Amino acid sequence: MTHSRTVELEGHIIDSGMLQQAMGLVMDLEGNFDIEQFDVGTHKEAESYCRMDVMADDEATLQEILHELHQIGANLTDPVDAELVAAPADQVVPTGFYSTTNHPTQVRYEGQWVDVENMEMDCAIVVEDGDSPRAYTKVLNAIEEGDLVVTDEAGIRVDPPERPRDNSGPFGFMQGGVSSERPSESLIRQVADALEQTKEDGGNVLVVAGPAVIHAGAGDDLARLVREGYIDMLSAGNGFATHDIERGLYGTSLGMDMETMEHPRKGHKHHIYTISEVIRAGGISEAVDEGLIKSGVMYECIQNDVSYVLAGSIRDDGPLPETITDAVEAQNAIREQAHEADMVLMLSTLLHSVAVGNCLPSTTKVVCVDINPATVTQLLDRGSSQAIGMVTDIGTFVPSLADKVLDDA
Amino acid sequence: MTHSRTVELEGHIIDSGMLQQAMGLVMDLEGNFDIEQFDVGTHKEAESYCRMDVMADDEATLQEILHELHQIGANLTDPVDAELVAAPADQVVPTGFYSTTNHPTQVRYEGQWVDVENMEMDCAIVVEDGDSPRAYTKVLNAIEEGDLVVTDEAGIRVDPPERPRDNSGPFGFMQGGVSSERPSESLIRQVADALEQTKEDGGNVLVVAGPAVIHAGAGDDLARLVREGYIDMLSAGNGFATHDIERGLYGTSLGMDMETMEHPRKGHKHHIYTISEVIRAGGISEAVDEGLIKSGVMYECIQNDVSYVLAGSIRDDGPLPETITDAVEAQNAIREQAHEADMVLMLSTLLHSVAVGNCLPSTTKVVCVDINPATVTQLLDRGSSQAIGMVTDIGTFVPSLADKVLDDA
Amino acid sequence: MTHSRTVELEGHIIDSGMLQQAMGLVMDLEGNFDIEQFDVGTHKEAESYCRMDVMADDEATLQEILHELHQIGANLTDPVDAELVAAPADQVVPTGFYSTTNHPTQVRYEGQWVDVENMEMDCAIVVEDGDSPRAYTKVLNAIEEGDLVVTDEAGIRVDPPERPRDNSGPFGFMQGGVSSERPSESLIRQVADALEQTKEDGGNVLVVAGPAVIHAGAGDDLARLVREGYIDMLSAGNGFATHDIERGLYGTSLGMDMETMEHPRKGHKHHIYTISEVIRAGGISEAVDEGLIKSGVMYECIQNDVSYVLAGSIRDDGPLPETITDAVEAQNAIREQAHEADMVLMLSTLLHSVAVGNCLPSTTKVVCVDINPATVTQLLDRGSSQAIGMVTDIGTFVPSLADKVLDDA
Amino acid sequence: MTHSRTVELEGHIIDSGMLQQAMGLVMDLEGNFDIEQFDVGTHKEAESYCRMDVMADDEATLQEILHELHQIGANLTDPVDAELVAAPADQVVPTGFYSTTNHPTQVRYEGQWVDVENMEMDCAIVVEDGDSPRAYTKVLNAIEEGDLVVTDEAGIRVDPPERPRDNSGPFGFMQGGVSSERPSESLIRQVADALEQTKEDGGNVLVVAGPAVIHAGAGDDLARLVREGYIDMLSAGNGFATHDIERGLYGTSLGMDMETMEHPRKGHKHHIYTISEVIRAGGISEAVDEGLIKSGVMYECIQNDVSYVLAGSIRDDGPLPETITDAVEAQNAIREQAHEADMVLMLSTLLHSVAVGNCLPSTTKVVCVDINPATVTQLLDRGSSQAIGMVTDIGTFVPSLADKVLDDA
C-alpha cells in the first residue's frame, strides 16, 4: 500500500452518516485508511472534522476510491486544479471524464473554486475559461469537439445536502422510506403546506402528470390548481394531453365516461378523433382559440400562461402537434423546466418522472405520488434528499390536495 | 359415446354466458352434446330455453360433466331424488359427496325440491328427514357420523344469480373488472349510496378490517360510521383491535405517532403493553367500563352494541382476551356473521376477507378495497356476482366514504 | 325504436361467446334486438347461425351499436359498399372515420370484399382504387390529404379468430388468464415447443427486450439463442443495448458486476463511457468491426445479421448512434418488425412491448414475460387471442428457455 | 437538561453505523449528548470506543433515550443490576417491562451478566434466581403471576451482530436491499452453497413453505431435497400439506392438473376429499402407512423423520388432523422449530414466514423467496442481519436450487 492521499470531511459527518459511508467505501474498494485527526462535535450543534490518509495497492484503485469519496463530499486536503482535457469529437468524452452527482459541486480552476452551473447527475463538467471562468454540466449528447472536460478526481468539491436534523420542516417527514401504511390525510396536509410555502416564497411549481390523473377523475382538480395559480409548469406526454382534451370534448377518457363510468365502445375512436381535430385546428392553443377546447388542464394552462412540455413516446397515437417527438429535443425542453423548478409534483407517471428526475439537482423539493410502491421507490432512489414518496390513489390525492390548498387561500 | 343424459337451461342463458359456459365445459371434459330444443328469447326481456343431450364415452366422465353443468345451473330434465349416503365417521364424507357452489341451491328429497339453507361454497349438503325435511350446508369439520350427505350429481338444482342487465344499480358498475385507473370519487359515491340503501332496507352491514385501516389514519372515520349506526358487525383480528386501542391509549399505532408521524422508538412496547393492560382489565369491554379505553373503533362497537369477532392468527402478539385463537371456532363465529350480512365492506385485509368470503352466498353485496390490486382480484375471483373491487388508498377511502354517508344523513 | 338494421353472426358463436357479447353490447348501448333466425350447431363441430334485427331509438345510437357489432364480427346482411371520404388534410381524418380492430378485416369496394392489409388496431383504413383496388391501414400520422378513408360502419367485415376449442395446441394453455401460481417449468417447455415450431415452419421470431434481461443475468442465454438462429429480429431501446455492450466491455451492467454482484461505484460512468466509445467508433457495427465489442446480444445480432430497432426514450443517456430518437420514425421501424413477425417474445419491458403490441394483428403469437403481474395483464388486455402471459423471473426464464430449445436441437 | 447518564459504545461503531444511529436517536428523542472520550479505530481492523454523556430535560425522556440506546448496543458505563418486578397476574407484565430485540442480550443479576436464552423480539425477560440464575424470554401469553420480569433500561446489554465487512461470505451479498433486477442464477448458486455449508457444519435447515410451492410445480424438487437429507424441519399450513397430498392422490393441486395444466372442474372437491380421506385414515402418517399417500413433500417428511408443524388458519378447509388449530399452541410449536434452526428458507408464504420470523434471533441465516417484492421487503424489515431476499419465481427457484445442491452431492 504505497499509494496514498489525504482527504478531509467536515460538518455533521457522524450523524449524517458521511463518515460511515466514507469508511465503508474505502473498505469496499479494497483500500485502507489511517485517521490522522478526528475532532468530534461533542454536542448536537457542533460540527466534526476528520482528516484521514487513504491508501491503496495501486494508483488506479486509489483514484477510484478518491472519486467515490468526492461524490459523498470528502475532499482532498491539498487541492490542485481540476484536470481539463479537450473532447476528442462531438458527443465523445475524454478517457477518465468526471461524471457528476446531483449535489452542489465546485471545480478548481486556476486556483479558484468555481461553482458548477445547472447541476444534474451523470453529466460531464465543461469549463469555459476567460476572464470570469464558468463551469457547467453537459450531457454526453451536447459535448462538442474541443470542449474542456473535467477528468479524474482532483480539484472537485461536492457538498451533499445534509438531512435535516429535526422533523419540523415539511420535507422532513418521509425519512423512514415509502409505505402505504401511513396516515394519508396528514401527509397530504403537509404537501399542501409545502406547496403554499413554495408559492409564497416566489418559487416555481412543476407538475409531472400521467394519463392516470385524467382516468382517475382528478382532471378538474388539477385544472383548478392551475387556474388558481399554484402550478407554473406542466411536464407530460401526448397521452395526458389527449385524454384531458378528449374528456372536455366527449366526457370520456380513453373511452370511459367519467360520470357514469360506462365504456361507450367507441372510446378509442374518440381518442384518435380528438388528436385529429386538434391537428385540424393547428394545435392546442388554436383549438382553445376557436372554442373547440373549453375546459380541462390543457385549457387552463393556455389561459393562464402555464408553460408545458409534451414529450413524445413510441406508444403514442397521433401525436398532437405540440408533442416533441424527438427524444433528445424533448429532454432539452424537460431539462429547462427541471432547472427552473423549486418544487416538483410527480403524479402517476414513471416515464416522465424519471426523465424529469434525471435533470433535477438534489436541492429541489420533490413529491412523488403513485399507487404502485415500486414506482415510488424507483423515483426516490434517484437521490433527491428532499423527496417525499406517497403510495396512494391519485384519484383521491389530487382532489384532497386541491381542497386543502384552495381552502387555505 | 353411449352414455348420455338430458339437461335443460332456462333464463337469460345467452347473454349471461350460461349457455356458452355449458357448451365449453362439455367440450373441455371431452364430452359431446346434441341440442334437442332451443327457444331463443328474441328480445332482451325474453328468456331462452335450451334442452340438450349430453354424451360421454364412459359413465365416470358423464357424471363429471353433469356435476359441472349443475354448478352453473344446468339441471337434469328427469329429476330424481338426490342420493343420500350416511357419513362413515365424524369429519369424513362419503365417496362422491356433492361439493357446493355459493349459489342458491335446492335438493330433491322424496319428490320435493328443498331449499338448501346457509349456502356457502365447498361444503357438503346434509339432509335432515322427518315431516318437514330440511337441507343445509356443513363444512367438513362439522360432519358427524351418520349425517345423510348428498352424493353424486342427481337431484340438485343450482340457480346462479344473473348479472344485472343494466348498469343503473349500485352494484352494476364494476363489471369490467378491477382497475386503479378509475374515477375514485365517483366510485366512493356509489358505495356510499349502496351503504345507505342497505341500511334503509333494514339490512346488516359487516365490516372486515385489517390493521392498515388504523395505520393509514382511518380509524376515526370508521369509528364515526360505527357511532352513527351504519355498521352492524365487525370482523377483524387481534392486530386491528390492538392497534385501534393502542392509538387511543398512546396516540400511536404500532409505534407511529398518528399526528406527527414520528416513530417513538418504544412503539412495539406500546403494542404489547396495550394487550397486557386489556388482559389486566379483564377484556375490552371491561377496559371501556373502567375508562381505560375512551375512543376508537372498538370503543364505539362496545358503546353501540356492534358485535365483533376477533379471529386469532399465528402472527399475533398476546392476544387480547376476546381473540378466538382456535381457527375452527373462529371460522364458526365468522360464518355466523357472514350469514347475517347483507352488505360486506372488506377493508385492507386479505386473510380475514378470504375467511369471510368463503362463507358468503353469491347473493350478498361485497365491496373490497385494497391498495394492492392482487388482493382485490383474488377476493373478487371467489365468485360473488355482486362484488365491487376498488384499488385505492384505505387512508383516503374511509374518510371520503364517512363524509359522503354522514353528509347525506 | 324505429331505427333498425339486420346483422348476422356465423360460426361457433355460442361457445366462443360472440353471441353473448353481441347481445350484451346491444343492451349496454340501450338498443334492442329481435332474433329472426337461429340455427344452433347441435353438436360441438357444428357451426351456428343467427340473424337478428337490431333496433335503437335514434340513428346515432344505431350506428354506434352497429359499429360495435362489427368489431366482434357481426356483419350487416345487406352489405353495401364502404363509405369513402377524402381526408381533408394531412394527418386529419374525416368525421366518422372507421377505427380498426386488430382482427382480420375486409372492406366492400365496388361490390367486392377486399382484404385490409397490415391489420393493426386504432388505425384508419385507406382504399386505393384502380384496376386491382387495395385497402390498408394507416395510422393518423400517415394520413395524407385526399386519402380515401373508410367512414361509418357499413361495408366492413371483421373476422375475430376463434379461441381454440381444445387445449392441445401450444397457445391453448393460457386461456384462464395470468397467474404466478402455475407450474413454470411446464409453461417454459411449451414456449420452447412453440418457438421451435415457428422456426420449423419458416416463421420469424421477434424478441422485445428490456434492460432487466441484462441486469438479471440472462444476456448470455439470449445471445446463445440469437447465435443459434432462433431469433430473427430484436426490438429494444438504448438502455438494453448499452447495458449489453457495457457488460461486454466492463463486466458490469449499470454498475453491477455480473459475477460478484458488487457495485463498483463508478458504475454509471461505465454506462456513459460505453455510449461515448461507441459514438467514437461510429456505431455498434463499427465497434464490433474494430474489436471493441466482442460478445453479447448486440454482438451476436451483428454477426448473425439479425436486424434490430433501438427506439429512443426521454429517459435515455446518450444515446447510442443507432438509436432512433424520433418517436414517429421509431414507431414506423417497429411497425415493420411487427408486421413481419410470426411469434413475439416480450421480455421485461412495458414501454417497448406496448409499442410493438400496438402494431400486431390478433393472429400473431405473443409470449409476454415479466415478474410484475400488472405488466403482463396490461399487455394481454390489448387483445391478441394468441397471447400467453407468464409472471416469472426473467433471470431464470431465459436460461431455462435457451437450455430447452438448444437441448432439443 | 439536568438528567444525564453515561453510556459507552465499542467495536466497529463508525462503519457499522452504530454511532450515527446513537446520535440520531438521542436527537430524535429531543435529548442531547456530550462526547467525553472518542478513540477512533484508525485503520479498518481497529475497533473504536466512544463514551458519551446523554442528557434530557426530564427523567422520563432520559429513560426512553437510554432504552433505545440499549437496543442498538450502547450500554451504561455504570452497570447496575437489572430491575426485576413480579408479574401482577398471568399474562400481565409489570409497568415499564423491558421489551426485547432479537439480538444477543445479557441482563445483570447480582453483579453478574447472564445470557438471555431463546432470544426473540418483542418478548419480556424473566429471571429465575437460585444458585445458577437463568434469564430467558417469555411471550406475553406465557407470563405467569409472580414471574420476575426485567423492567426499565438498566442492567441490560445488547450486542447486535455487525454487518460483515467484506462481501465474501454467502450472506454478504444482499446488503443493497431487494431487487428483481439481479442475476438470479448467481444468487441461487450462493443459496445452494450456504445450504450445503449449513449441512456440512451439522446445522439444521427449516423450510417454511406456502401452497404456491405446489401450485408452481416445485413439489417434486422440494421432496427431493427432503429425501436427500437437506431439510430438517418443515413449517407450513393445512393448505400446503393438502395441496401436496392432493397432487399425489389426483395429480391436481386445488384442481389444476400439474402435467396438462387443465382445470378438471371438480378441483375443489378433490381438495375437500383429500382431507376427508386423510381424516378417515387417522392422519398423514397413517395414510402413508396404509399406502394412500405414496409421494410428495409430506410423504418424504414422514419417511425421513423430518419433523413438521402444520399451523391452522381461518381460511383453511378441513383441516387435516395434524393441523394445530389453536394459534397460541401453533406459535409455541413454531417457536421450537425457529429456535433449533440454523438456516431458514421462506418459500412463498407471508403468514407462516412472519410467524417463524417473529421467533428468530438475529443470528439465524434466512433466505426469503417470493415473486411479490412487498412480501420480501416486509420479511427482511423484521431485522435479521443475515437475511437474503430474492424476488423470483418459486416455480423455477426450487428446481434450480435442487439441481445445484444435488449435482454438488
TrEMBL record, chains A, B, C, D:
UniProt keyword annotation of Ribosomal protein present: no
Domain LOR/SDH bifunctional enzyme conserved: from-to ranges: 4-103
Pfam short name (any one): Saccharop_dh_N
InterPro entries assigned: ArgZ/ArgE-like (IPR005239), ArgZ/ArgE-like_C_1st (IPR048964), ArgZ/ArgE-like_C_2nd (IPR048963), LOR/SDH_bifunc_enz_cons_dom (IPR007545)
KW Nucleotide-binding (keyword) present: yes
GO molecular function: nucleotide binding; ornithine cyclodeaminase activity
Enzyme Commission code(s) on record: 4.3.1.12
Cofactor(s), by name: NAD(+)
UniProt-listed Gene3D superfamilies: conserved putative lor/sdh protein from methanococcus maripaludis s2 domain, putative lor/sdh protein like domains
Catalytic reactions on record: L-ornithine = L-proline + NH4(+)
Arginine dihydrolase ArgZ/ArgE-like C-terminal first subdomain domain mapped to chain residues: 104-188
The organism's place on the tree of life at top rank: Archaea
Keyword annotations: Lyase, NAD, Nucleotide-binding
The family this protein is said to belong to: Belongs to the AgrE/ArgZ ornithine cyclodeaminase family.
Functional note: Catalyzes the conversion of ornithine to proline, with the release of ammonia.
Protein name according to UniProt: Ornithine cyclodeaminase
